[in-house]
Amino acid sequence: MKKIIAVGLMLAATAVWAAEDSGPLKLWYNKPAAKWLEALPLGNGRLGAMVFGGVQRERIQCNEISLWSGWAEKENDRAGSYEALVKVRQLLREGKRDEAGKVAVKEFLSEKGYGKPDFGAYQSFCDVLLDFEGLPEQAENYRRDLDLATATAHVSFRTDGVDFRREYFCSHPDQATVMRFTSSGKGKISFRLGLSSLHKNHTAMASGSEVVLAGQVDTKSPAHEGMKFEARVQVRAEGGTVAADGQQLVVKGADAVTVLFVGATNYKLEYPDYRGTEPAQLNAKTLQAAAKKSWTELCAAHSADFQRLFGRVALTLAGATHSELPTDERVKQYKKAQADRGLEALLFQFGRYLLIASSRSGGLPANLQGLWNDSNTPAWNCDYHLNINLQMNYWPAGPANLDECAEPLIGWLADLRSPGEKTAKTHYNSRGWVVHHVANVWGFTAPGSARGIHMLEAESAAFICQNVWDHFAFTQDKEFLRKTAWAMLKGSAEFWVDNLQEVPGGFLAVSPGFSPEHGPLTQGTYWQVMIVHDLFTHCIEAGELLQTDREFCDKLKQMRARLLPLKIGEAGQLCEWADADLEQKVRGDHHRHVSHMYAVYPGAQILPRATPELAAAARQTLDYRGDEATGWSAGWKINLWARLLDGDRTHKLASSLIAHYIAPNLFDLHPPFQIDGNFGYTAGICEMLVQSHTGEIELLPALPKAWPEGSVTGLRARGGFTVDIAWKDGKATRWRIAAAEPRAVHIRVNGELKTVLAEKL
Q1: pLDDT tens, residue by residue, 345-390
Q2: I want to staple 521 with a disulfide (CB 3.0 to 4.6 A). Which of 101, 379, 426, 737 is the partner?
Q3: Measured between alpha carbons, how far is 740 from 757 in angstroms, rounded to an integer?
Q4: Closest to 382 (Cα-Cα) out of 391, 395, 373
Q5: Is 503 left (phi over 0), alpha (psi -120 to 50) or beta?
């Protein structure tokens, strides 16, 4: 085991750190996947693959992140809806909540969108199917694994005295899924390879050493053309032969085989048409470039690219680890004993792995399932939910040292502003931009329609701006703030300058307001006020940094001072609503949404040291709601308890997530699979070890007794700092703070607040 070279309690300019050996970062199994939630995920941000690992029949289920049904509507917004909004607000002033809700559904929500064919859903792409001639269904010494350190899946087994090995990875630099089949004997590799798709409008044809599947999504509307897609496979055999046979390629007697898979659609992220280059043209160019490289060169490029991101962070937790057990068995054992520290660390790194695999430059943001989906009618359309789920996907980006992975989110939001401005004008008669509960790849920003009143969540753009601000806070990239982020932040703030409503007491609040999935429609939900407060604060800070829009920022300061103040209820809870009657059942309320905890996390208005009364009320609310949840909700609660500085309660929630909401392949279960729980867990572990939202960097703020000894290297703190820590018996024994340039920083370590000089990275 490598040792951490001593740094001491004060930093030394010459200090050198080496990450401790965190053990094998592998998911492994002793049998093929029998179902999708047992398959192993690979991805390069755009192409995804699920490896099943069958001996005789192998299935590689593939995705391309832009493949959607639906189409780009010229007009999603509802003409005349602003008049209905005026009526709704008046009814809420009169206390007629039910009537206001009915009017909003009938006259304000869009008649298009969610639940309608135009909105669409994320689609499965295709399957690569391989039938291996002469191999049995089962074999000796079978092993299937996913190595997180190399982003490579392997399948190995022995039959009739011959050892077989298969390797798979999705390369970002070469934009291809790459497969390699080898054996210990010459001429032992023979198989048939074909492509299949769930889409009825597709054709497949093999020619030479390639097979091509071309298709088009069925919109079920003659007036609207569906998205086009194409998959292309090239087989390169060493020894033996490769021949086309109808829709399949046939390999016989090869010593080794390399398979290149490329895929594309004609989607382009560009409002309003979202149409780009034909997929056949894109694939031909990509495959031609990748085919010039050897297997070794493809591996080297993939490894260097992936390690540049993944290798930044290492986490070691002392204690029991059961890496000798297959991963599905480890999960089962954890349900009984919850004592596998290695599994806890593995799941943390798995979340980082998934973010790299599902969100890279040039692609779209990670959706409800990240990148991986085997259905054309997935749960909740596998879309972008903005009442917390999409935000959760990117919580780990900053603290887990994966800032680059936020680029697809930023690019998608930059495009979304244009339709969002139209929605703001039509539905609210206001400036700025807005997006509601759900969005898609077609620029849908309107409120509605299918799921009723809770689709009316106009704070969603302001909420996602928290992620935009955090991207700056962690990177300190002023060019990003000036050229990209400021327009998003200011535009969202302009919307709220025009839309905040005066409520009793002379305060400003959001009306109509809705606490996600909890209801009802009111003129005073606190979570929306919390979000607007943070948006205004970030705009004010950005304006000062950029020395711009001073009058606008002064206006925001004035309005922020008038926002409805947070309130503690009679039961000691943090109030969710301004309406007193809605707070009466708080003791028996176990709803999984805890939206008014936003001010604890990801916001920072409620702080245990600075606002102890509000922090105690937040804790009381979480106690009333209970620890039971769904996968994504458990992921959020981990972060909440970490921010409340309760390490043992945080660890209890983290353990519960593993014990109750994790599939055999470590995907998080809502259920069904939702990737936000994976990302929430990883973000939560970061919060347990490093917090930086108060103007200081706190080391080990929520360290549980279950982690008496350990180390972490490479976590990030706001301000552009990188943090390494080793601890024992609940105390930091060694630590290091580094930045691009040496500068002073306030840190809290072992209960002591001090100012130190950060080392140069």
Answers
A1: 999 999 999 999 999 999 999 999 999 999 999 999 999 999 999 9
A2: 101
A3: 12
A4: 373
A5: beta
The first and second tokens of residue 399, run together, are 């603290």
When pLDDT is averaged across residues 308-336 and rounded to a whole number, the result is 96
CA distances from 528 to 148, 209, 365, 537, 746 (A): 38, 57, 24, 14, 31
Sign of the alpha-carbon dihedral angle for 226, 66, 73, 385: positive
Nearest Cα neighbor of 252 from 165, 132, 127 is 132
Match 């820590």 to its residue by tokens: 725
Chain segment 381-429, per-residue pLDDT in tens: 999 999 999 999 999 999 999 999 999 999 999 999 999 999 999 999 9
Residue partners of 559: CB distance under 8 A and separation at least 6: 497, 500, 508, 536
Residue of 638, 745, 683 whose CA lies nearest to 399: 683
Cα separation of 693 and 719, whole Å? Answer: 10
| Total count of residues recorded for the chain | 761
pLDDT, position 450: 56
pLDDT average, residue stretch 670-674: 95
- Tokens representing 690? 């490093």
pLDDT attached to residue 349: 98
What is the rounded CA–CA span in Å between residue 659 and residue 663? 10
Residue 640 in tokens = 């909440």
Q: How far is CA 442 from CA 267, 409, 455, 583, in A?
A: 10, 15, 17, 39
Tokens of 259: 């398979």
Q: Which two tokens stand for residue 279?
A: 């997929």
- Going by C-alpha positions, the residue among 205, 210, 240, 224 that lies closest to residue 71 is 224
| Helix ranges (DSSP H) in 268-379 | 279-291, 295-310, 327-337, 341-358
DSSP string, 524-588: -BHHHHHHHHHHHHHHHHHHHHHT--HHHHHHHHHHHHTBPPP-B-TTSPBPSBS-GGGGTTGGG
Q: How far apart are CA 710 and CA 730, in angstroms?
A: 10
> Which segment of 111-115, 314-318, 513-517 scores lowest on mean pLDDT?
111-115
CB count, 10 Å around CB of 80? 10
Query: Is residue 438 a contact partner of residue 383, using CB atoms and an 8 Å limit?
Result: yes
Measured over the CA atoms of residue 655, residue 661, residue 663 and residue 666, the dihedral's sign is negative
What angle separates helix 647-660 from helix 341-358, to the nearest 10 degrees?
70
